[in-house]
From TrEMBL:
One of its GO terms (biological process) is aminoglycoside antibiotic catabolic process. It comes from Saccharothrix texasensis. GO terms for molecular function: aminoglycoside N-acetyltransferase activity. The keyword DNA-binding does not apply. Gene3D superfamilies: 3.40.630.30, SCP2 sterol-binding domain. Residues 1-136 form the N-acetyltransferase domain. InterPro entries: Acetyltransferase_Eis, Acyl_CoA_acyltransferase, Eis_dom, GNAT_dom, SCP2_sterol-bd_dom_sf. The keyword Isomerase does not apply. The lineage of its organism: Bacteria, Bacillati, Actinomycetota, Actinomycetes, Pseudonocardiales. It comes from the Bacteria. This is Putative acetyltransferase. Keywords: Transferase.
Length: 376
């Protein structure tokens, strides 16, 4: 089996394989911010995957992340280890490119768990009647214009930097002007060109789909929710992608019965020392100097496997070689711990951790459920 980088000459065959696997191709197989790996068996294309260049917020800092998607194996080649070989190659590729963590949406979780990815966050839609919108104060809104895009991006980053897991939506992976293609975009202007909040939505057969509802403060959020309520009588229901948990958790007038649709996404730590160095650790500022000795079990990423010391000192956190390996961590434990999705007790019960992980828990704290609001 040969694994190589996807080239423009391969796009036709890659598109064919994606149609076989997924029924369509969606985005082009190659585009700015996206690359691919191709597997060949006996000279024939057998499978492929794509990797998107993202930066994901963790602890208020952006961490380079490889978004793995479009993993497809031709039917004749299934059962020959093609997907596993592609994932192994992707791990090496991401490490070489400095993508120290990786996320994906798993249709076949066992394949990805075998290579160290594990459930670490949610992609969540909330559906409820439009007449359940709160009667907040009206805020002045207007349509989006191209000149708003920098201020809209600043508004998004202001909120996204406080929600672990969200990506910073930087180009070229996500084009700066993509928002102009949305059917409905309302902007809440502030002073001196600032944007206080915005919503982006479209109407479909099921009602109103709200892709973004972002506000810097409660007044703005309530005003945007009230604007959604203006669709009541025209449409019955809204589906809101949960970007900011405050919007749905604290502000919407949800009925006792409402529908939550959740897709889990999996995270993989590709390079533990580099990932820890890139992540923000707010709790480290008040922790006394301490260390925990790790034994990382990771056959698919041997570059960070073995004995390591995680050291907290002077408000910073680092991973260095050495230690006695008192806390044994499986590769699948690294993602849920790094994200804060699971504590050491849950990881121990799942058979992914042995030893005292109290310092690991104190470091991550209680950041809330990690979220993605972009699908790939």
């Amino acid at each position: 089996m040969r694994i190589r980088e996807l080239t423009p000459d391969d796009v036709g065959e890659a598109d064919r394989l994606r149609r076989v696997a997924f029924g369509g191709i969606g985005e082009p197989s190659l585009r700015p911010g996206r690359r691919g790996l191709l597997a060949e068996v006996d000279g024939h294309v057998a499978g492929l995957l794509t990797i998107k260049d993202f930066h994901q917020f963790w602890g208020g800092s952006t961490v380079p992340m490889g978004g793995v998607g479009g993993v497809a194996v031709d039917p004749w080649a299934r059962g020959r280890g093609v997907a596993g070989a592609l994932l192994d190659a992707a791990l090496r590729d991401m490490r070489e490119r400095g993508q120290v963590v990786s996320a994906l949406y798993a249709t076949v979780p066992a394949v990805y768990r075998s290579r160290g990815w594990e459930r670490s966050g949610v992609f969540e839609w909330l559906e409820f009647p439009l007449d359940r919108m709160p009667a907040g104060a009206r805020v002045a809104t207007r349509p989006l214009v191209a000149g708003d895009l920098p201020a809209v991006r600043a508004c998004y980053l202001d909120v996204a930097s406080t929600v672990d897991g969200l990506v910073d939506r930087s180009p070229p992976t996500i084009a700066a002007d993509d928002l102009l293609d949305e059917a409905v975009v309302s902007v809440v202007p502030g002073h001196d060109g600032e944007v206080r909040g915005y919503l982006a939505a479209e109407r479909d057969a099921g009602g109103l789909r709200v892709h973004d509802l972002i506000g810097r403060d409660a007044t703005t959020q309530l005003g945007l929710l009230r604007e959604l309520g203006g669709w009541a009588g025209v449409l019955d229901r809204a589906r809101l992608l949960v970007t900011d948990p405050a919007v749905t958790g604290l502000l919407t007038n949800q009925a006792i019965e409402h529908t939550v649709t959740t897709s889990a996404w999996l995270l993989r730590v590709v390079d533990l020392p580099a990932a820890v160095a890139a992540r923000g650790w707010p709790a480290a500022a008040w922790l006394k100097p301490a260390a925990v000795d790790l034994d990382v079990v990771d056959e698919h990423a041997p570059w960070h496997a073995g004995r390591r010391r995680l050291v907290v000192e002077d408000g910073s956190v680092r991973v260095e070689a050495g230690g006695n390996g008192a806390v044994r961590l499986h590769a699948r434990a690294l993602g849920p711990w790094f994200s804060g999705m699971q504590d050491s007790h849950a990881l121990r019960r799942a058979g992914l951790l042995d030893g005292d992980g109290a310092l690991l828990d104190r470091l991550v704290g209680a950041p809330g459920v990690p979220r993605l609001a972009d699908y790939f």
